Amino acid sequence: YKTHHYKTHHYKTHHYKNHHYKNIQIKRICLTTSMIVASMSLVACNNNDNDSNDPKPQQIATNTNLNFTILETSDLHNNVMSYDYYKLTEDKSFGLERTATLIDNARSESANNILLDNGDTIQGSALGDYQATVSPVKCDETLGIYKVMNDLKYDAGTIGNHEFNYGLNYLNQITGSQFNVDGITASASACKGPDFPLVLSNVISARNNQPLFKPYKIITKTFTATTPDGKTVTVPLKIGIIGFTTPGIMQWDKKWLDGKVTTAGAKEMAEKYVPQMKTEGADVIVALSHGGIDTSPYSPTMENASWHLSQVAGIDAILMGHTHQVFPDASSKDTRLDQASIDKVNGLLNNVPAVMPSFWGKGLGVIKLNLTFDGKKWVVNKNNTKVEVRTIQNADKTFVAANPRVARLIQAEHNATINYVKTPIGTSDFSMTSYFADVGDVSAIQVVNQAQANYISDYINANLPQYKNIPVLSVSAPFKSGFAGGSDYTDVAQGNIAINNAADLYLYPNTVFAVKIQGSDIKKWLENSAKRFNQINPSLTTPQALISTFPGYNFDMFTSADVQYEIDVTKPIGSRIQNLTYKGKPIEDNAPFIIATNNYRASGLKEYYNINSSNVVESPDANRDVLINYIKATKNLSLTNNGSSRSWRFVKVKTAGPVTFKSSANKIDFAQKAGLTNISVVNNDDGSNKGLADYAIDLSK
Ligand code: MG
Ligand code: MN
Questions:
Q1: Which ligand is nearest the CA of 252, by number?
Q2: How far, in Å, is the centroid of ligand 1 from the Cα of 30?
Q3: Where does the pLDDT of residue 605 fall: very low under 50, low under 70, confident under 90, or very high at 90 and above?
């Protein structure tokens, strides 16, 4: 920790002594401060706003050349540690403790750097929930992830949509703000926020029509540059940082924001503030855009405005996020990127360098800019720019080491979160398992569907009155269905349900989506799901495997008494769904339905199903969080109400030979508990050495 400080400090002092007498006063401040409080020294040096000590631009020799590196994290979602709180196990594939190593490496390549965060920072892990809602961080305490970011010497950040998830009061507190907004009482002093500034230009207080946060900040960094005659000099560079978030907050967090704030268009705000920043002396302007790339016609409420921002004059670099993608990505199959104005290989939008570093700290965005001083101002050499995303996963699939300082800083919060996820949120009078989900057990699926349908119904009632009279249904699938062996099944025991059990019920970090489709599409959707089964020939006397290679996590099913259908596995793919009814009547082809699902399935619908769907709700809320909240609200789950409502059955057929499938060994009891009396054990060890057994199903029963 101290070594790191010393090195940076020493480096700067060295440069001052040899090359730039003008900075004497700055260096004295640094030295003096560092003697008293070591941890303050870098803040004083790095975030130096003391313009009076900077050399005047005319003191910089014409054609002086400067390289500097912009580093970006985005969508960290409070994943500080490489730890999955739901599975209660380490997961090296994410976590700021590892991105920190990428940051250190990038800084060791170039001391001319600036580190920025693009939002969706405080919410998205159990750690975030714990500090916001379970044991709320106090006014005089720094939020855990901000403590770590302070230590990593972030220069600035912006606000993502998820920063609003816990309400304006909480956001005001933990960011050390003093929002001038209805519902927040003015206080004499702000609570403890991060050491670095947060900027956001397009969320506007309804009270005074001014941005809730500072719209932008100009940070003066002292960088080394090279004069035309080859000397190294230190120069000040004024970097203007402006932030934008996605206007969807007004729907997603309506309950916190309605009437208190509004959003303004990113482009309008950029056009307003970029010239202002230039007037105030910004040499370079970096846009923190919590949004992705969308080339469709501009609207002030569009979700992903980064491409349109790239057309605003004066923006030199765009740091993106929100869509959790990697950009640039030469191998991207996203056809929306295949147009002349987008360079997905070199990371350019309309020739402006732009980067998006994945999410959860999996990657670090890096933009290397090259500037020349033309005698009056710094000019970015556009053909000498390098944009890349560096990942915490190495080429050999291993992961970079964690920075050990991070774990030390967050240890207390981390341990408290682990205790929290082990605490009960409800009870269940049945075991929720997926061992026999392929053949009809819904004990691990129904509660997920109930939670999703309930959430979407509430959302529609609150926000989308035009859909109020359309039935809301939900589909979900057995996410854990034995692919990795006998332990790869959901198994939540009867009794207390803890928060981490929710991960067993909902494996993936998906978000809730709802699509509006018509009756004929429901049949197509279910026909696709029925690909889970091989076509069975009833006359064969040899054993036939029931389950195909179609993944279990794509085996979507309803679990509502209102929807009934049969699957005829003797028929070819595409003609297996029989007797599909809604409330006892055949579903009409053109009858509208809203189906709750997840972002992953919704985005695949049009491509894979030839289904005519329109997304009506694209919620940023995780299905898993929605499930947790549903269980908390329901408290006591019962087999009758939450675990036994089947929508589908196999069409009965007598087969000459056995129809078999695999599941975890020694689990036949769970089939019986689910009322599946037509299941038998063929062989309790299938010989795969994976803890799997062979079972048979009698399709005539
Ligand atoms: Mg976001
Ligand atoms: Mn995000």
A1: 1
A2: 37
A3: confident
For residues 389-406, average pLDDT: 97
Nearest Cα to 184, choosing from 194, 170, 197?
A: 170
Q: Distance, CA 618 to ligand 1 centroid (Å)?
A: 12
Q: Which two tokens mark 658?
A: 């056995």
What backbone torsions phi and psi does residue 592 show, to the nearest 5 degrees? -80, 145
* pLDDT average, residue stretch 464-471: 95
The percent of residues above 70 in pLDDT, for the chain, comes to: 91
pLDDT score at 577? 98
Around ion ligand 1, residues with a beta carbon closer than 5 Å are: 120, 160-161, 322
**Ligand 2 center–CA 162 separation, angstroms:** 7
Cα 119 to ligand 1 centroid, rounded to whole Å: 7
Write the pLDDT tens digit of every residue in 225-256.
Answer: 999 999 999 999 999 999 999 999 998 888 89
DSSP single-letter state for residue 435: T
Residues contacting 15, CB < 8 A, separation 6+: 224, 232, 234
Pairing of strands 592-598, 472-474: parallel
Q: How many Å lie between the centroid of ligand 1 and the Cα of residue 130? A: 20
What's the burial of 429, exposed, middle or buried (CB within 10 Å: 0-12/13-18/19+)? middle
The residues, any chain, with a CB within 8 Å of residue 419's CB and separated by 6 or more, are: none
Q: What angle do CA 238, 240, 246 make, to 5 degrees?
A: 165
Q: Residue 79 Cα, ligand 1 centroid: separation in angstroms?
A: 14
73 alpha carbon – ligand 1 mean position (Å): 13
Query: Which ligand does the CA of 74 lie closest to?
Result: 2
Please determine, for residue 451, whether its predicted confidence score (pLDDT) is greater than 90.
yes
How many Å lie between the centroid of ligand 1 and the Cα of residue 526?
A: 31
Give the distance (Å) from ligand 2 centre to CA of residue 160.
7
Q: What is the pLDDT of residue 43?
A: 34
pLDDT at 600: 82
Per-residue pLDDT tens for 503-526?
Answer: 899 988 788 999 999 999 999 999
pLDDT mean over 365-374: 98
Q: 612 versus 670: which is more confidently predicted?
A: 670
pLDDT-derived band at 352, boundaries 50, 70, 90: very high
Distance from residue 75's CA to the centre of ligand 2 (Å)? 4
Determine the distance separating the centroid of ligand 2 and the alpha carbon of 694, expressed in angstroms.
42
Would the pLDDT of 641 be above 50?
A: yes
303 alpha carbon, closest ligand: 1
From ligand 1's centre to the CA of 348, what distance in Å?
21
For residues 138-175, one letter each, b for 16 or more C-beta atoms within 10 angstroms of the residue's C-beta and e for the rest, the string is eeebbbbbbbbbbbbbbbbbbbbbbbbbbbbebbbbbb
Bond before 328 cis per omega within 30 degrees: yes
Distance of CA 214 from the midpoint of ligand 1 (Å): 20
Of 195, 236, 192, the residue nearest 218 (C-alpha): 236
